[in-house]
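A.,

Following up on our hallway conversation. Structure tokens first:
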């Protein structure tokens, strides 16, 4: 492995070119319109809608603890920009400028572009450990930028910060000649962990584990004493724990556990399974939740890997395996994370080949917090891609033109066989589901709450919140609450306190059943719950707006008058079962 790199002015230039490659790939995939921060009509459902709502409610929220708390969203449950995956660091950075920003403002598109740019930047730095050639570094960076797992995650923008993992690979593989260089690497490691801790918990776990690998290796190299190593480890832990406490990921009474570990896993063949990301290679079977463990290396990277292995077998093998020793902690950590990604039930092409449920049973309460375990293959994925590039560059180190030609061929093949990119559908999405009826303009300052009956708590398994509302209802009324400065009782949180969900829902239904309506609330009523309001008679006024039944207490407001003129709310009970109809 070559560990020297260029030291001229080009060393400062080429990472910027790598960043440009990332932006170009983002634009080629159709990401251009998302760079308009006022453009919401590509993120109207699912994770993007959750993230935008979290940010919009936070920008108007009072400062409080935990940082990023959004009391107007999913009231009275604990809700933060962390639980809405609204990118805590970016949300926190933008909040002081909220008064100058447009009311319809999203940063998801620019964030995604920056993730690809930083991936290109860090990849050029990483490839500089193996070659002095700028073309080879840029071609290798192109394979990192076009890695299918990166753009595949564009639907969950905070998880696209794969450059954090690439940065940790660079820090682990970079040579350290003395204690000063070792401490410099550890300081950068603390910074990367700090950034990860305010981006997404899954990335934090991976980055922290890679940081531990670096710490172990630095100690093995003799640059740190045992005491200094222990202190550095404590500092690493605090660097993660303090932001987690500050952003409310822990310490808020919300359970970190969740069902699904072993379901959202990775298949053992994930690195060669395109799952539709190839025109030429067929998709292999997987179990339903294993899309979370998507790890296709890309057609170009696979062909390059085959070429590298064949060249290694036919062109002589290195005799000094001591070169592997410095990266052994990194290899072990990445492999351990990959095993976690494959989970307690390992499958190959969707078929179970090994079950370790009994072995993992004692630690399942802890693993439950990471139900989407398939994501943990990412460090091993990028280490594998790095290994392929390093092998090709080493094998043809005496014939650099051959290595460059192989890299160029791999990049062209990778680009040509990315149909999902060239279809330019990655950022089309769904329109922002804004309520359009003019009567909503009558919602004035006398109202404080938008109360859905029952609450729409996305992902909750509690029977009390079951409803027949159309998809996206919580987004529509979350948007209304944001625009009118109101509070809503519905939303989408990454983690739920399910007993509390049931308690709050039951209390709301009990209040409605006994006529205890809040004077400053407008109620959006599911059809099955409409009789509870109809039997209140003149105490409420109900009407249909935008297909939703809306009820307000009987007091003189513009909204009440508008509801009187709106189509009346109607409840159509299901016909009773006849003698010929089974119960």
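Then the amino acids I'd put at each of the 583 positions:
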């Amino acid at each position: 492995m070559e560990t020297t790199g260029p030291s001229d002015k080009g060393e400062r230039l080429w990472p910027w070119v790598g960043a440009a490659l990332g932006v170009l790939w983002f634009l080629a995939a159709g990401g251009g319109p998302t760079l308009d921060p006022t453009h919401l009509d590509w993120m109207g459902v699912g994770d993007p809608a959750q993230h935008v709502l979290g940010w919009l409610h936070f920008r108007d929220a009072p400062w409080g603890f935990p940082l990023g708390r959004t009391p107007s969203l999913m009231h009275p449950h604990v809700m933060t920009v962390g639980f809405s995956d609204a990118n805590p660091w970016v949300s926190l950075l933008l909040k002081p400028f909220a008064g100058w920003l447009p009311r319809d403002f999203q940063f998801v598109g620019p964030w995604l572009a920056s993730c690809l740019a930083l991936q290109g930047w860090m990849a050029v730095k990483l490839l500089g450990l193996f070659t002095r050639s700028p073309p080879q570094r840029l071609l290798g960076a192109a394979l990192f930028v076009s890695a299918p797992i990166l753009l595949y995650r564009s639907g969950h923008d905070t998880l696209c910060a794969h450059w954090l993992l690439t940065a940790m690979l660079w820090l682990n593989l970079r040579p350290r000649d003395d204690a000063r260089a070792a401490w410099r690497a550890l300081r950068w490691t603390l910074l990367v962990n700090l950034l990860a801790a305010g981006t997404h918990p899954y990335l934090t776990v991976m980055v922290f584990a890679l940081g531990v690998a670096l710490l172990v290796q630095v100690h093995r190299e003799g640059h740190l004493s045992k005491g200094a190593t222990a202190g550095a480890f404590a500092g690493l832990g605090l660097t993660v724990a303090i932001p987690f406490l500050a952003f409310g990921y822990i310490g808020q009474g919300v359970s970190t556990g969740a069902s699904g570990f072993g379901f959202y896993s990775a298949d053992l063949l994930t690195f060669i399974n395109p799952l539709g990301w190839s025109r030429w290679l067929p998709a292999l079977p997987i179990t339903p939740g294993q899309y979370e463990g998507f790890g296709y290396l890309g057609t170009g990277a696979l062909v390059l890997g085959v070429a590298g292995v064949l060249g290694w077998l036919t062109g002589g093998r290195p005799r000094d395996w001591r070169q592997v020793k410095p990266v052994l902690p990194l290899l072990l950590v990445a492999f351990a994370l990959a095993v976690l990604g494959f989970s307690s039930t390992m499958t190959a092409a969707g078929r179970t080949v090994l079950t370790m449920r009994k072995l993992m049973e004692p630690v399942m309460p802890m693993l439950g917090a990471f139900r989407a375990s398939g994501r943990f293959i990412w460090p091993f994925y990028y280490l594998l891609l790095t290994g392929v590039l390093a092998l090709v560059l080493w094998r043809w180190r005496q014939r650099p033109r051959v290595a460059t030609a192989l890299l160029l061929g791999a990049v062209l093949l990778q680009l040509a066989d990315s149909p999902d990119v060239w279809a330019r559908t990655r950022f089309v999405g769904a329109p922002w589901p804004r309520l359009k009826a003019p009567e909503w303009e009558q919602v004035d300052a006398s109202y404080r709450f938008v109360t859905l009956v029952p609450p729409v708590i996305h992902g909750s398994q509690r029977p009390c919140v079951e409803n027949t509302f159309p998809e996206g209802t919580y987004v529509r009324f979350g948007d209304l609450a944001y625009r009118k400065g109101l509070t809503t009782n519905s939303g989408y949180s990454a983690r739920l306190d399910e007993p509390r969900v049931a308690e709050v829902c039951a209390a709301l239904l009990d209040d409605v059943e006994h006529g205890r309506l809040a004077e400053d609330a407008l109620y959006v009523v599911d059809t099955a719950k409409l009789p509870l309001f109809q039997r209140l008679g003149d105490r409420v006024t109900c009407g249909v707006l935008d297909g939703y039944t809306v009820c307000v207490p009987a007091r003189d407001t513009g909204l009440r008058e508008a509801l009187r003129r709106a189509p009346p709310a109607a409840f159509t009970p299901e016909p009773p079962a006849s003698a010929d109809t089974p119960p």
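The radius of gyration is 27 Å. Curious whether your intuition agrees with the design.

B.
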